[in-house]
Every structure is written in C-alpha cells, then in structure tokens.
Amino acid sequence: MNLQIKQSKYNTYPIQGILIKGPSPTYWIQEIERMGFLLSNIVVYPIPNTIPNSIWGCLLVSSKDLSKIEAGANQYCQCIHQRLFIPEKTSLFPSLTAKELDALLLSKPYVMHPDFGMVELFDPINWTTFIELPKARTPKIKRPASSIVIPQDIKTFQVYALSPEDLLQQLESLNFSEGKPLDAPLNASEKARLFLLRRLFKQHEEGNTEKSGLMGALESFRNKISGTEGQTWSDALQKEYEALEKRNQKELDKLLDLLKNNPEEALKYAIPLDHTGMSRGSSYVGGTWSLSQRWDNFSLFGRQINATNLGGSAPLGDKGFYQLQEQYRETAVQLIQEKKYRKAAFIYLKLLKDYDKAAKTLEMGHFYQEAASVYLKHCNDKESAARCYHHGNMLPKAIELYKELQKYELVGDLYLELNKKEDALFYYDKVIEEHKQKGRYLKAAFLAQNKIENVARAQSLLLMGWQNKSDAFNCLNNYFKNIKDLATLKAAIASIYQHDVTPKNAPIFLRAIKCEFKKGNTLSPFIQTIAHEIISEQATFNPNIIQELVAFDKDNKNLSQDILRYSSKRR
Fold first, then answer.
1. Bridge partners of 6?
2. Average per-residue pLDDT in the chain?
3. Strand pairing of 43-48 and 55-61?
4. How far apart are alpha carbons 178 and 6 in whole angstroms?
C-alpha cells in the first residue's frame, strides 16, 4: 500500500508531537527548556537524516495536546490513532481506520515527513547518556560584615543634645584676638589742627568777615585758588574737620551713633552694663574708657577679647547709663525684626544681663538648645528648658527635666514619641492614679480613654465620679456618650436609675438622660418614661422641676399652660 500525506487547511488529528530540526542534542535541550517542558514529562525520539550516519533532528512526544505550546521555529505533528505522526495541516491518503493502520505498521510507532520519509520510532533517548551532572563542590561562604539596616518606616527620630555644661564649655573655649580701638586718639598736632579748623569753620558759619592772623592768611590763600581747585581744597578741609571731630567725639556718643547706623558693627565694641563693664556711678574718680573692639563674634557664652584687662567698671553717669541701655534694647528689637535672633539674644544676655529675654529670643529663633541652656544656667527655669528641648526634638533631655518637675503626663507623651509605649503607659498610669486620689475622675477618664486607649477603665472612672459626686453631671454624661450600642446604653441607664439614683442626685441624672433623649433615637420613649417618674417624685418638694417636662414633651402644646396652672395652685 502506498501511503501519502497531502496538504490540508485543517488538522484532522490531535497535536501530540513537535519536530525539532538540528543534529545537536544540546540544541534539542535548549529548545525543550524554552518551550517549558520537563524531561520527565515527555518522550524524545531521534530522527535519522537521508544521508547515512547523520541526524535530522528529534521528535518530542507527549500524551497531552501541544497546540497551545509556543513552538517557535519547530513544527507541530498530528498523531493518527496513537501510531503515526504526520506534520500539522496535512492529511493521510488513503484514509485508514485504527485497526487497518495498526495492522499495517505492526503496532509500532512511526513518523512520516517529506524531508526524511517514513521512519520507525525506536527506543527513546536516554538523557543520562547525554547529560553529565556537575561535580558537587563545597562552597566557601564568606560571611559579610554586618550592614546597617535601613528601616521601612521611621517611627521616631530625635536630636541628641549636649549637656548645658558641655555646651557652655565649648562656646567659652573660643580663641579671641587682641582688641583694636575704633578710632585712634588724637595726638598733639591733630588736636592743634582741629582747634584751628574749628575756629575757621565757626567764623565762617557765623558770617564774620574780619579776619586776622592765621585765619586771615588761610582765607587769603583760599581766595587765591579759583574754580574747581578752590572748591576741592575747601571740601578736603571740610572732610578733615569732620573726621577729626568724629575722632574727638566722646566714646559714649560714638557707640550710640554706631548702634543706630550700623548695629552689627557696633556690637563688636559694645560694653556690658555693670558686671565687668560700665557702671552708672558718677562719683568714680579718674575712670576712663576707650571704644575698643571687645568681641570677635557674637557667641552667646564667649569671653570678651580684653575681659581680663578691664580692671573694674568705668562710670557713665545715670543719664549715659540709661541712654546706652535704651539704645541696646532698641537695637535688639531691630535685630529681632530682621530675624537675627542670635545677635539680639547676645545683646540681652551679654550687654543687658536680661537672661529671660535672651532665652525667649533664642526660643523664638528656634535655637532651642542654646535657649534651654540659658533657661537652666541663668534663669533656673526647668519647665521652659524642657519645652525647648521638646521643640528641638532632644527628647531624652526634656524627659529628664519633666520627671524632675513631676510632669508625668508630658513624660508619657514624649515616651510615645520615642515609640516606648510601655514606659509611656507607666507614667500615664501614675497621672491617672493621682487624678483619682484627688477626686478628678473626669480628667483621669479622659487620660485613660485618649492616651492609654482603655475605654473600659475610662468608663469605670466616670462611674466613680458620678457615684462620688465629683463633677457628677459631666462624668455621667460622658459615661453615656461612650456607649455606642443602644441596647447596652438602655441597660446602663436602667441599672443606674434603679441602684444609684436618690432624691438628691435625681436632678443631675435627669439632666444627663435629657442629653440622650435629644438624640431622637429608639430609646426616646424609654427615657421619657423614666423622666416622667423622676419629675413626678420630685415635684412634691422641688416644684421647679416641673419645667423639665417641656424638654421631654415638645409636641404637647397644652403642657406649658398646665405647668403654669400647677405652679399657680402651688403658690
């Protein structure tokens, strides 16, 4: 019988084989891996070529349908009656039944293809003969150095602050240069020249036309010079006169002018008032001072350049002292407006000795560590220092001070910021117990509910406040507010009404349930019934309570008139 395969538009039989063309088993394995097969799940047969002792390729056979596999350059094969494999989109001619094909092929598998003809499929490939597993080697593992673990979430961060003593020691250890005077004092020849120029310009200002001696000679010489040269000569004399007058000015006036015109430069020459600086006393004999540079920088805790050479204080007199003091304050305000907080604080701290103002200025400028050091060193204000440490995120320092001040709630807050919940709960518990012992049940309950998040404990504290008549209404009102389930709330109202309400506290209980009645939920009829019972019992000795009926019966239009008649009869 002559079997033939012909082209067809469709596949008649299932796709259960894939032909891989190529003589290399290595290539076959690469294609098998690419198509996603496991060697244990398929059977592979080698296919001989038409040339002796050569390989055309291989046939990959599976019991499953392979039509959905990405074959790539490889070719699908149909399987006819589990015996004969032919290429896809071909048909067998003549068509044979399974029994006829089985008899024809002697129950052996075959593959038929135009390239190599009809080939019997002998033993499948034993891959162990082709694949050699690598020899097992004991790896040498090098343990890496411990690395820094970068957290996924930043739960807290803080700034580690220096102690006030260390901070002051560092700032006070700065090196300073020798002080230089603002202006050199006038020598004898300069004083004589100033005397002559002063008389010359004074006569000129007064309009005196009679010149004699040196004045006449100077004026005559000036008149001989005409035009631009004369004007230049006159201007030069004017500038020289002003410069000499400025250098001859009193030291206090120089400093005041400099503070007004150039405050930052003036601070280099500023003198502290009193303590190793300037005194207001006028009885000081022989006291003189020169306007020399005293500060290399505006370190808040640094030393003056020539602090060791002051040898006491020089007198200003009351007027001069207060002038300088007032100017210092104006300059400090000006620097604060310019947001130069450190320089403004320098004036308050070093020149005016106003330590509290210095610390507040530093705090205003967010120099929290320096501000805290001033509060501690000069003001003994631990609470303000703790606040600065807190704002500067130097939490351990703030916690230390708040513990000394017994501000345990703030201690708990800071421990929470540090993500130390157990420590926070310990100090919150101390505050709750303190509030409880002092009868502040409402504060204790708020702390338990909002900070510890223990609603059950908060409810217990609120109930104690109601029972012990400590801010009873607010305690009971908040107790009811915290109950969200209406069935539970109904049971709580009924229990308190039955066991805790007395003629004395009944009006307070009535106010509390009135708040719940106004919510207009399904408990309104139940609350209304209790309110009517309380009002009727209280009316005999507390007639004014009748007015409360209006809140519980707003729809009753005649109620107000009935209450008015009842009140009239009682009178």
1. 91
2. 80
3. antiparallel
4. 112
Average pLDDT for 403-420 = 93
In whole angstroms, give the CA distance from residue 477 to residue 458: 13
Average pLDDT for 269-278: 63
CB distance 313 to 320 below 8 Å: no
Compute, in degrees rounded to 10, the torsion defined by CA atoms 161, 165, 167, 172.
180
Report how far residue 250's alpha carbon sits from residue 246's, in angstroms, rounded to the nearest whole number: 9
Residue type, 404: E
Angle, vertex CA 516, rays to CA 515 and CA 519, nearest 5:
100
User: CA–CA separation, 338 vs 333, rounded Å?
Assistant: 9
Q: Which residue has the tokens 């494999």?
A: 85
How far is the first Cα of the chain from the last one, in angstroms, to the nearest whole number?
133
- The angle subtended at Cα 174 by Cα 171 and Cα 175, nearest 5°, is 170
Alpha helices in 451-485, H assignment, sequence order:
455-467, 472-481
Q: What is the pLDDT of residues 485-542, one digit of tens each?
A: 999 999 999 999 999 999 999 999 999 999 999 998 999 999 999 999 998 888 888 8
Residue type, 416: L
Q: Are strands 55-61 and 15-21 parallel, antiparallel or unpaired?
A: antiparallel
The helix-helix angle for 486-499 and 506-517 (nearest 10°) equals 170
Bridge partners (DSSP) of residue 4 are 93
Tell how strand 75-80 and strand 84-87 pair up.
antiparallel
State both tokens at 410: 């703030």
Cα 232 from Cα 237, distance rounded (Å): 9
Predicted TM-score of the model (pTM): 0.55
The residue whose two tokens read 């406040």 is 465
Q: Return the pLDDT at 331.
A: 86
Rg over alpha carbons for the chain, rounded to the nearest Å, is 52
The pLDDT tens digits for 234-267 are 677 677 666 655 544 455 566 667 677 767 666 7
